[in-house]
Amino acid sequence: MTTALQNNEPQAIATNDDWFEVLKITDYLFAVSEPRHYEHTVIYLLLGGDRAILIDTGCGIGNLRRVVEQLTSLPITVVNTHTHLDHLGSNHQFSEIIMFDHPRSRCLSENGTSQELLHWELQREELVTLPWPDDFRIEESVLPPFKVSRWIKHDDVLEIGDIRLRVLHTPGEAPDHVCLLDQTHGILFCGDILLNGAVWCHLDGGDVGELHASYELLMRHFDAFDILMPSHNAPCQNKDLLPIALAASGDVLSGKAQSQAGTDLWGRDYNKYDFRRISILSRFSP
Ligand SMILES: [Zn+2]
C-alpha cells in the first residue's frame, strides 16, 4: 500500500472553495493547502474507517470546516502538530481536538489570541495573494479559545478510527512540536521540521540543537515509515530528506556550514544555511 503511495500521482480535487487547494493523495488521504498564503500551510485529512483525522487547521482564513465536509461525512478529530498560529487557525470550528501537553498549548487553548497578533502574524496583505476568500471578513477574524478533549505526551499511541498514530515530541522549530507516525500506513506527518524549504529555528522557542536531537529521534523510527507528509509547501516528500536534514543540522552545530544573514517578513533576523533539498534558519549571530 505504501509503495503505491510513493509512486502515486496526487490528483487535484475540485471543490466549491476559492481559498483551499485539495489534493487526493490516495483513497484515505487528502492534502488541503493554502497556496495563496505566504506560509503555504498544508493540512492533512486522513480517513480512518468510522472517524477522520485532521492534522492541523491552517491559517484560519478560508472556511476549513466547509471544505472538509465536502470531502468526508465522518466525524473529525483534530490533532495539531504545534502551536504556531498558521497550524491552528480553524481549531474553533471543531469539537474534538487533541494537542501535545505543553504550557504554550494550554495557554492558547484557554485564551486564544488577540486580533492584533493574528493580523500581524497571518493577515497582512503582503502575506496573501488577494482576493480574500468570499466570506472572509478581516475585521471579524478571530482565534478564540478552543476546548482540547485530550492532552497527549511523547510516545503516546492514538487509536482513532482504524488508524494508529504514534506521537513523537520533536522540538527545534517550536518547543511543543510533534511528528505523528501513522503506523497503519507507514507515513510520517512531519510538521515543520522536514519540508521542501526552510526550517525556521530563529523564532522564540526555536533551537538547532533540539532540532538535531529530534532528527536523531526520528532516525530511530526510520524503518517504520515510507514517506513524509510535511505541513508546508509540497506534500509527499521522499524520506531520504531525513538523513540529509540530520547531516545538515550537524554541520550547522559543528560550525562546518556557511550561512547568510537575512531578515524575515516580520522583521526577525536570522542566519540561513542552505543544503541540498532543505535550509535551516537559526537565530541571528554576527
Ligand atoms: Zn508552520
Written account of the structure:
By secondary structure, the protein is α/β, with parallel strands linked by helices. The chain has a single domain, classed as Metallo-beta-lactamase, Chain A (4-Layer Sandwich), CATH 3.60.15. The protein contains 6 helices and 18 strands. The protein has helices at residues 2-7, 64-71, 103-111, 115-122, 208-219, 241-254; strands at residues 11-13, 21-26, 29-33, 42-48, 51-55, 76-79, 97-100, 150-152, 157-160, 163-169, 178-182, 187-191, 197-201, 227-230, 237-238, 260-263, 269-275, 278-283. The longest helix is centred in the last third of the chain and has 14 residues, at 241-254. The structure holds zinc ion. Zinc ion is lined by residues 84, 86-87, 192, 231-232.
